[in-house]
Amino acid sequence: MTPALSRNDTGARVAVLCGGVGAARLLAGLVAVVPAESVTAIVNVGDDTEMHGLYISPDLDTITYTLGGGSDVERGWGLAGETWAAMDQLDFYGGAAWFRLGDRDLGTHLYRTGRLSEGASLSAVTAHIARAWGIQATLLPVSDDPVRTRLELDSGEEVNFQEYFVRLRHSVAVRAVRFVGAERAKAAPGVLESLEAAETIVIAPSNPIVSIGPVLAVPGISELLARRRRDVVAVSPIVGGRALKGPADRLLVELGGHASATGVAEVWASVAGTLVIDEVDADLRDAVEQTGMSCRVRATVMSSPSAAAALAAAVLAART
Ligand code: FO1
User: Fold this and answer.
1) Could you tell me which residues come within 8 angstroms of residue 123 by beta carbon, excluding any fewer than 6 positions away?
2) Fewer CB within 10 Å, N side or C side of the chain?
C-alpha cells in the first residue's frame, strides 16, 4: 500500500533524508514549525541488524522514540526510564549483550520481527509503530529491501555497522565502506513520490558516509536530488571540524575527504544546492561556495527543542 503523501495547509511538503539522532532532533524541530502531516522522513536502514533472531532498525527507532516523546535524550538512543533485566539475563548465559536492548525497547523489536516474519513490509510495520506513538509525520524506511552497511577496517577485517559502531566503539580505522544490496534495492513505497512532491528536500545533519550514504545509494534517489538540487538544503553535521556525535569526522578523513563543513560540501555538492553551516565555521563560507553550493551560516547545534525549531525554520528559509 502506498502511504498518502504528506501535505500541510499551504500544500508545502518537506521531505527529509535521515540518519539517527541529529535527524531526529531536526525532525522534532520541523514538526514544531510546520504541520507534522507535511513532513516525510526517509530513513537510513544501513544500520539495521539482526540480533538474537530480532530485526532491529536503530535509526527508525531513534526517530520514532524522539517524535513520540519517549526517547532517552541524553543517551541518544533507546527509551527513557528503560530497565535492562533481559540483557542482564542474556549476559548471565554468556550471550552477546554488547548491543543493549532495553526491556521496553525489546517489545518494539519483537513486534517488528513478528510482523516481518508474517510477510509485512518494513514500511507497513514502521507506519503502524509510528501511529501507535501518535506520530503525525510520515516515517518511511528508504527501502523495504535489505541494504546493509559493511565496513572494511584497516586491519583487513570486515564488519557490519553495529559491530563497528557499538562493539568496536568506532575507534578503529576504516579503509572502505559499502552498502550491500543497495544497487538491487527499490525505494520503499512513497519515497520517490514524497521527494518529487516536496517543496523543500532536507538532508539532515547526519553522518554523510554511513547515514546518508546508504539512502543516496538506493537507485533513483541521488538522481532525483541532483535534478532538484536547487530545492535541496543540507545541514552540516561537522561543527568546528568535529562531529557532534559519532565518527563522521574520522570517517570523512579515513575515506579521503576532509573533517570540516567544506569536506561535507564536497560530498553533497552534486545532490544539494545549499549547505547550512554553523556560526563557528563562518570563515568557511567562501570555501563551501567554491564547491558550487550556496552557504548559509546559522546556529546548528540543537541543544534544546527551541534551538532545533529555530534551525528547522532557518533550513526551510534557506532554499536558493
Ligand atoms: N548504541 C550504542 O552505543 N550502544 C548500544 O548498545 C546500542 C543499542 C541499541 C539498541 C537498539 C537501537 O535501536 C539502537 C541502539 N544503539 C546503541 C544505537 C545505534 O547503534 C546507533 O546510534 C545508530 O545505529 C547510529 O545512528
Assistant:
1) 3, 140, 141, 144, 188, 189, 190
2) N
What does the pLDDT profile of the chain (320 residues) look like in tens digits? 334 444 444 458 999 999 999 999 999 999 999 999 999 999 999 999 999 999 999 999 999 999 999 999 999 999 999 999 999 999 999 999 999 999 999 999 999 999 999 999 999 999 999 999 999 999 999 999 999 999 999 999 999 999 999 999 999 999 999 999 999 999 999 999 999 999 999 999 999 999 999 999 999 999 999 999 999 999 999 999 999 989 999 999 999 999 999 999 999 999 999 999 999 999 999 999 999 999 999 999 999 999 999 999 999 999 86
134, 159, 225, 269 from 249: Cα distances, Å:
35, 19, 24, 18
Residue nearest to atom 25 of ligand 1 (CA): 20
Q: How far is the CA of 166 from the centre of ligand 1 (A)?
A: 7
- Residue with CA nearest ligand 1 atom 18: 77
In a domain, 18, yes or no: yes
- Domain of 170, CATH number, reads 3.40.50.10680
Ligand 1 proximity of 58 Cβ (cutoff 6 Å): yes
Residue 298, beta-bridge partner list: 278
* 165 within some domain: yes
154-169 burial, b for 16+ CB within 10 Å, e for fewer? eeeeebbbbbbbbeee
Model confidence pTM above 0.90 = yes
What is the total count of domains within the chain?
1
- Measured in Å, residue 77 CA sits from the centre of ligand 1 at 6
Cell 503525525 sits on residue: 136
Ligand 1 centroid from CA 99, angstroms: 7
Is the CB of 235 inside a 6 Å radius of any atom of ligand 1?
no
Structural domain containing residue 39: 7-45+136-316
Q: Is 77 in the pocket of ligand 1 (CB under 6 A)?
A: yes
Centre of ligand 1 to C-alpha 58, Å, is 6
